[in-house]
Amino acid sequence: MADPSDIAQAAMRSIVPGIKSYGTPEELLAAERPDVVHICTPPASHGPLALSALKAGSHIYVEKPFTERVEDAQQILDEARAKNLLVCAGHQLLYEFPTAVLTQYLPSIGRVVHVESYFSFRTVRHAPGGRTVLRADHQLLDILPHPVYLLLRVLEQSGDGRIELVSLEVSQAGTVHALVRRGGVTGTLVVTLEGRPVESYLRVIGKNGSLFADYVRSTTQRAIGPGSSGVDKLLAPYRQAWQLLTGTTSAMARRFLKSQRSYPGLAELFAAFYESVRTKTPSPLSPESLLETVRICERVAEALKVGEARALALAAPRPVDSRGVLVTGGTGFLGKEIVRALLGRGRPVRVVARREPSPWERIAGAEYVVADVATGAGAHLFKGVDTVIHAAAETAGGWPEHQRNSLDATSHMVRGAAAAGIAHFIHVSSLAVLAQGQGGPIGDHHPLELNSKGSGPYVWGKLESERRAVDLGEELGLSVKVIRPGALVDYRDFDPPGRLGKRLGNFFVAVGSPRDRLGVVDVGFSGRFLAWMTDMWESVPSPLNLLDPVSPTKRELLDHLRKANPDLTVIWLPTFVLVPLSWVATVLQKLLRPGKPAMNVAKVFSALPYDTSAIAILAKRMDGVTDALPSSQLR
Question: Coiled-coil ranges per the record (predicted)?
């Protein structure tokens, strides 16, 4: 191992006793003289490390993106050529099963006239261990080489002359449109963060048919032949449907039987590269393909930077010098609505985020500060602020992640706010912290759950964070108010709350009875209420359950879901069936994970009655329907 940090070296020695360690990669390379070096570090370091390995006489494998600049890629390839060493990159989709089938049948479709490479994906928002993930546009650049090199591989096999990037358009929302040409063959590249469903495919159109390689399902559909007769047009959909059915079944069987743990195609790419090293034959990837992939990706990165500068100019923040509101979690589902509502009320806003948001994720007028409040909340965060809305919390992961990003973050925020002399602190909790089975409608002062770990890490994190916020506020003399939103929904773009049930493909398993009412709240209403609360501090009691003034039934929520999903089939799972299943699940959890808390599945999906009288009165006051606030009804 090589690491300049003595602490890191000591940590590695505790994992691998007796391991040899060096202060720099150059020292390691000079002493150990490895045959092959895999470079899997962040992209900005690929160039220097690749050159160091080549100068030490090692063949190199470089994870994608190969480099961020064509200049660096060219320098690496020149050095490799001079030293007679091989270079490979993480272009494993070229060795996946769909590519192999596509390559096999490519001659059958005649002269290729057009290629389409499409990739839609969902950005990663959470990483194991609480690590900060890349912002959305950087994730786009990270996966971009995959659809690019697939497109270029077919163009290389089908066209003559140089690769030309004819046109390029990159939207602020992270969608790439490009037209690429080689000789008489054109190719389109579309990569999007917004398109759904998630797909990755390569379509090749020739004069005698087409091929469709699907990298999500690991299948390839063939439509070979002119397909111009009436019989062809009639039978083609059935042939392709049969290929999709049998191909998908075979792909699932392959993955299951192989117990594949790595990315498909990766082991095959390594094997091909090592064989080239052993036999002194050319690398599986040509230098030209590596250069052209980097060239197109660099052009996209440049376009994103231009768009970023434009977006940042349009989203210039208002100065937070007085009456400011500090919002944690301000880039999240609820946080964005809070920020918009605050700005609409003329309040300056400072958003604290663990990672820098992409330009298109920012809200014009808000100030964004990158800080990890799980490690501390410095005085600079509170400058010009009189109110804090702490909406950040962990929503995924296990107990350590919730300890760090919910409990520890809350402690630091309350202590930091108290030290800065903040007047008001709003802690956004959750209805999930309230005890169940107490009888009667659940009000704002309902008892908290006693077994905080019985409903999983999320509820535990929320409950213990609320307790910590209240206790620390009393200890430090900070006015802390607790707001507990119900399950957040957006009726403009409806996504079902977890207690409604579970979607399985085109089926939705709804749990309970259609007449059950769920404690949900519209995210837009929640944002407006929390913003209004900052100006009406004395009028809002604490704690307060933030709900829709009238709780909708499960049937009403499913009607919203069906409007956006007309082909959805709903299957009801009655409570009397769920309860025994939950008992079985609890026993299995205790057997499989002895010593760890078991989650009560029936409890997770239960529908509880809520008293919404207080929030109904406040909602009318907020909307200007009533002038007087009957305080007796809010106690």
Answer: none
No. of helices (H) and no. of strands (E), the chain: 19, 22
- The answer on pLDDT for 632 being more than 60 is no
Contact call for residues 339 and 326 (beta carbons, < 8 A): no
Domain 315-573+605-634 CATH assignment equals 3.40.50.300 = no
Looking at the chain, the whole-number percentage of residues with pLDDT higher than 90 is: 70
Classify burial at 230, counting beta carbons within 10 Å of its beta carbon; exposed 0-12, middle 13-18, buried 19 or more: exposed
| Rounded-to-integer distance, Cα 526 and Cα 549, Å | 11
Long-range contacts of 191-194 (CB under 8 A, 24+ apart): 191/118, 191/119, 191/120, 191/140, 191/143, 191/144, 191/147, 192/119, 192/120, 193/120, 193/121, 193/122, 193/123, 193/136, 193/139, 193/140, 194/120
Question: What does the alpha-carbon distance between residue 272 and residue 240 come to, in Å, rounded to a whole number?
Answer: 32
Report d(CA 620, CA 622) in Å as an integer.
Answer: 5
State pTM to two decimals: 0.80
Q: Return d(Cα 376, Cα 354) in angstroms, integer.
A: 12
Which two three-digit tokens encode residue 529?
């209420």
Sketch the domain layout of the chain as residue ranges: 6-89, 93-262+285-306, 315-573+605-634
DSSP letters of 568-589? -EEEEE-HHHHHHHHHHHHHHH
Buried b / exposed e along 467-496 (16+ C-beta atoms within 10 A): bbbbebbeeeebbbbbbbbbbbbeeeebeb
- Longest distance between any two alpha carbons in the chain, whole Å: 86
What pLDDT, on the 0 to 100 scale, is given for residue 629?
44
Distance CA 248, CA 229 (A): 28
Domains 93-262+285-306 and 315-573+605-634 share a fold: no
For 237, 550, 570, the CA distances from 506, given in Å and listed in that order, are 21, 29, 9
Tokens of 153: 């591989």
Alpha-carbon span 139 to 131, nearest angstrom = 15
In the block, residue with structure tokens 């946080």: 335
How far apart CA 490 and CA 492 sit, in angstroms, is: 5
Beta bridge mates, 546? 485
* CATH architecture, domain defined by 6-89: 3-Layer(aba) Sandwich (3.40)
Residues linked to residue 130 through DSSP beta bridges, in sequence order:
none
- Fill in the DSSP letter of residue 564: H
634: pLDDT strictly greater than 60? no
509, 573 contact by CB (below 8 A):
yes
d(CA 186, CA 114): 5
Q: How far apart are CA 68 and CA 47, in angstroms?
A: 9
Spell out the residues 6+ positions from residue 65 whose beta carbon is closer than 8 angstroms to its own. 43, 46, 141, 142, 144, 145, 294, 297
Rounded CA-CA distance 495/549 in Å is: 20
Cα 164 off chain centre by:
33
With both helix axes pointing from N to C terminus, report the angle between 457-476 and 409-419 in degrees, rounded to the nearest 10. Answer: 20
In what helix (H) or strand (E) does residue 520 lie, and over which residues does it extend?
strand 520-522
The architecture in CATH of the region 93-262+285-306 reads 2-Layer Sandwich (3.30)
470-485: pLDDT as tens digits: 999 999 999 999 999 9
Instruction: Give the pair of three-digit tokens for residue 382.
Output: 């509170």
- Contacts (Cβ under 8 Å, ≥6 apart) of 527: 334, 336, 337, 338, 339, 340, 341
How far apart are the C-alpha atoms of 475 and 455, rounded to whole Å?
A: 29
